[in-house]
Design brief:
Blueprint (H helix, E strand, L loop, with lengths): L1 H10 L3 H27 L23 H22 L6 H27 L36 H27 L3 H27 L22 H24 L4 H27 L12 H4 L2
């Protein structure tokens, strides 16, 4: 994320948005230093990751300030999910301290991003539902609905998941459009183009759900991508970022699936999950084929040691 933020800071024109991005960059750099120290303390190899060679901060402007800020918010949300998942798995006190501090920092960044998006008038209010006047109980199994048009109104948990998935996917789709414009490798360009078609179908799916329920839709961001064909990022960085976005979508869709009970929504999220998982795997294959995929450390091959 450091490389992307460096470019965003360099290209942001709005002083408040630039300051917000710079604050995030100033948080990431010490975090990377702490992680490196932790790895070195036990002789663990430090991942190569990305360097200044993977970003060109002097490249032409590819995204508007509003889109950069919205994408940054989406990344903060993902980082919060990652940190919240990692913290309960940590046992070393210094590692727990790192995750705790990072969580607080990301929470503060999210609050700043939300407030700034609202201040700029680009934070679409989520759909409103009336406050119930009493507690109700489910009467029978018709509450689940079916796949043939007979279903109850969407409930607030389901509505939240559909709206947020659509909101994030619209931002992700615009970022991917920019990547597709500037990527150099023909195979990666074809992969990105296929992704745009997959994302468009998902956006159409969730838009239909909200329209059927007479709910407001999040805003589209494609018009916030410039016509630049000069890449600010290496193909390696854009492919990695795409695969990471897919990983977050798979996680988020799985969480949404667990929070939905209406049959048509459960089926829809399950299908999207399968499509994204397959697409993400193809991205990993491209990373491996180009020699860009660092291997996660393996357990000892006891079977191999025996022979």
């Amino acid at each position: 994320m450091k490389c992307i933020l460096q470019y965003f800071v360099a290209k942001a024109q709005d002083p408040e948005i630039k300051a917000m991005m710079n604050d995030a960059l100033n948080i990431i750099l010490p975090q990377q230093s702490t992680i490196t120290t932790l790895f070195n303390s036990v002789g663990f190899p430090v991942p190569h990751g990305f360097t200044d060679e993977d970003v060109k901060i002097n490249a032409k402007r590819l995204y508007s300030d509003s889109l950069m800020l919205s994408f940054h918010r989406a990344i903060i949300r993902f980082r919060l999910v990652q940190l919240a998942h990692a913290l309960p798995l940590a046992t070393r006190p210094d590692v727990r301290d790192f995750f705790n501090d990072a969580l607080v920092q990301e929470q503060n960044l999210l609050n700043k991003a939300e407030d700034l998006l609202t201040k700029k008038g680009i934070n679409v209010r989520p759909p409103y539902t009336p406050v119930p006047d009493r507690v109700k109980y489910i009467a029978d199994n018709s509450w689940y609905g079916n796949l043939f048009g007979s279903e109850r109104p969407i409930n607030i948990l389901e509505l939240t998941q559909v709206f947020k998935r659509l909101e994030n996917k619209l931002v992700e789709n615009a970022i991917q459009l920019g990547f597709t414009q500037v990527v150099k490798d023909p195979k990666i360009k074809a992969y990105f183009s296929r992704g745009l078609n997959i994302f468009d179908k998902e956006i159409e799916k969730w838009s239909k759900v909200l329209n059927k329920e007479d709910m407001i839709l999040p805003m589209s961001w494609k018009s916030e991508v410039t016509d630049s064909s000069e890449s600010p990022f290496s193909d390696k960085l854009m492919l990695f970022r795409t695969v990471l976005n897919i990983a977050y979508s798979v996680y988020a869709n799985g969480f949404a699936l667990a929070n939905c009970n209406r049959t048509d929504l459960v089926t829809a999220f399950a299908k999207v999950e399968l499509n994204l998982s397959s697409y993400g795997k193809d991205g990993l294959d491209l990373m491996i084929a180009n020699g860009w995929m660092e291997e996660i450390p393996l357990a000892v091959d006891r079977k191999g040691l025996k022979h």
